Amino acid sequence: MDIYTIIFLALAVFIFLRLRNVLGQRTEDERPPFERAARDVLRGALGSVTPMAGKTLDQPPPLPSADPVVVPDRWKGITETGSALARGLDQIAAADPAFDAQHFISGAKSAYEMIVLAFANGERRALKDLLSPEVYEGFEAAIKEREQRGEKVETRFASIDKAEIVNAETRDRSAQITMRFISQMISVTRDKAGTVVDGNAEKLTDVTDVWTFARDIASRDPNWKLVGTESGQ
């Protein structure tokens, strides 16, 4: 070998030894792989994380703690931070991290309209999917009495002017949210001959309803059902 080849080989060996010394060392700030993985989990990187030993994905979510974490302005546009309503919503969110109050309000408005129209049309199957057994029993009894009298109800919504959450709480394994709906509709009841016996077919009526919806927060079923109704002011 000529002198240049020997020089290049000596440089290569020198560089290799220096790199091995540097790359083989661990600084004090560096964490071993399992510590980095734990840190990623705390940040929410759960895509590939399996349950801990003895745990299964079928276990119900934990019930809310007595002092849920308060996030400033979490319920902006719904209620003020620190209010009784905010504390109730905090409890529901602690039990169900996927809970979205604005999404709930939108769904409750749709459910309100669907239930009112299904009741007017006597659609028992639709009502059964949206009501608790106790509420369904009351609705079904009213429909049955109406049918026995040969009466029919005609209902048409003009608008839902307001839909707001007025109360939220958790009871045992149940999350409950009470909504106030203010709407305008035309609703009339006709007898067998088609004569109006209740309501006005030509006049809009202002209606205020206070309805309570609930769901089992220990269940994987995300659906809420109507568990209570009353007229409101």
User: Given this structure, which CATH class of the largest domain is correct?
Assistant: Alpha Beta
Ranges with pLDDT <50 over ≥5 residues? 22-66
The class by helix and strand makeup works out as alpha+beta
How far apart lie the N and C ends? Answer: 102 Å
Report the mean per-residue pLDDT as an integer.
79
Name given to the CATH architecture of the largest domain: Roll
Q: Fraction of residues in helices?
A: 25-40%
How would the global form be characterised?
elongated
Query: How many DSSP-defined strands?
Result: 5
How is this structure best described in words?
The protein is built from 6 helices and 5 strands; from the N terminus they run H-H-H-H-H-H-E-E-E-E-E. By secondary structure, the protein is an alpha+beta fold. Strands 1, 2, 3, 4 and 5 form a 5-stranded antiparallel sheet that branches. Helix 4 (101-121) runs antiparallel to helix 5 (124-130). The longest helix has 21 residues, at 3-23. The radius of gyration is 31 Å and the shape is elongated. The protein starts with a helix and ends with a strand. Mean pLDDT is 79; it is low at 22-66.
Give structural attributes.
6 helices; Nuclear Transport Factor 2, Chain: A; 37% helix; 233 residues; single chain; alpha+beta; five-stranded antiparallel β-sheet
SSE layout and pairing:
Layout lengths: L2 H21 L9 H10 L41 H12 L5 H21 L2 H7 L2 H16 L3 E20 L2 E17 L5 E4 L5 E12 L8 E7 L2
Antiparallel strand pairs: 1-2, 2-3, 2-4, 4-5
Helix pairs in contact: 4-5
